Amino acid sequence: MRGLARLVLLLALLTSPAHAQLRGIDLYAPRPFGYVIGDVVTLTAEIALDAPFVLDPASLPAPRALDYWLDLRGVTLTDEGVADGVRRYTLDLVYQTFYAPLEPRRMSLPGLTLTAVAEGRRVPVEVPPWSFLMSPLREIVATGAGPAMALRPDIAPAPIPTGTTLRRLLAALAVALLAFLVLAWQMGWGPFGRRAARPFARAARAVPTSLGTTADPSPAAYGGALRALHRAFDATAGKGVFAEDLPDFFRAYPAFHAAEAEVRRLFNASRRAFFGGDMDGARRELPPEALVALSRRLRAVERGSA
User: Fold this and answer.
1) Phi and psi dihedrals of 39, rounded to 5?
2) What Å distances lie between residue 202 and 96, 192, 270, 293, CA to CA?
3) Average pLDDT score, the chain
4) What does the alpha-carbon distance between residue 273 and residue 25 come to, in Å, rounded to a whole number?
5) Which pLDDT value is given to residue 7?
């Protein structure tokens, strides 16, 4: 008896350090029954170690086929940190079973041996195995008439309700169309540019038309372009606008102040062309391309987008 007591004490002295480094392993598993071929099973093990021991990542198993019926699909180790001298880990193991039992049968996921290391010491950490019950996909003996393996008819696809989605789509399209029409009205696009309230929009179309595509338009074409812009000023002010009327015009329509310098060049060019008989001087004062640019700028001012 005295020798046996010494042996037990020796074993306790040899094994107690390793147990001291492993505080515990808690295994969390899903339901232990009702699995069929192809199901995925996830086990979670919470491991507590005495600091400064840490789990050796090299000891983690690699995802692979463990057996002809079992694959290890994923391994995830999360370090939860150290608290009160204990380092905690969460180990997630994802398995997939391909076993096809003919009757309910208990299967077992194998245990794992990990390694904790610290200061040159290595301690094994055993994750226990876990068993569960698998069920067959079909009955062995038919309980009704006909063969046991007779195929059942396909399930008719259920129509997907699209009425609400279609109504929302139509409503969105209607709102988008309405918004586009409001924007076109505001900007004077298309037929909205011809309304009476947009004289500079009409002038912006008439000036290039009068000048044509040639780089050197005729005096008549240039004069027509000048008159198109003057008609826009007259229509905006509701009366004839001459050079001496420009201060009143800008006070009444302050948005056009941004183009005051170009507008005065327009009136100077018109004075040369229509009252001085100096068409060439008018074209030097305001070249045709500058006349087109001015008409577009005044249209933008009129739209409020300049």
Assistant:
1) -70, 150
2) 74, 10, 19, 14
3) 86
4) 100
5) 36
3-state class (DSSP) for residue 277: coil
Determine the average pLDDT of the residues in 153-171.
91
CA distance 182 to 172: 15
Sheet holding 22-28, edge to edge: 22-28, 40-50, 86-97, 70-83, 64-65
| Higher-scoring residue by pLDDT: 183, 47 | 47
Contact between 293 and 265 under an 8 Å Cβ cutoff? The reply is no
Which tokens is 138 given? 């079909």
Which pLDDT score is estimated for 13? 38
CA–CA distances in Å: residue 147 to residues 40, 139, 144, 154: 31, 11, 8, 17
Q: Which of 66, 126, 121 is nearest to 96 (CA)?
A: 66
State the pLDDT confidence band at 2, using cuts at 50, 70 and 90.
very low
In what helix (H) or strand (E) does residue 86 lie, and over which residues does it extend? strand 86-97
- Residue-wise pLDDT for 214-228, tens only, equals 778 888 899 999 999
d(CA 115, CA 56): 6
Q: Which of 37, 41, 35, 42 minimizes the C-alpha distance to 133?
A: 35
C-alpha 22/C-alpha 242 separation (Å) is 99
Output the pTM of the full model. 0.45
Alpha-carbon 287 to chain mean position: 50
* Closest by CA position to 220, among listed 293, 285, 274, 286: 274
Rounded Cα distance, 227 and 63, in Å: 84
| Amino acid of residue 99 | Y
CB atoms within 10 A of CB 38: 11
Question: What tokens were used for 115?
Answer: 């390694």
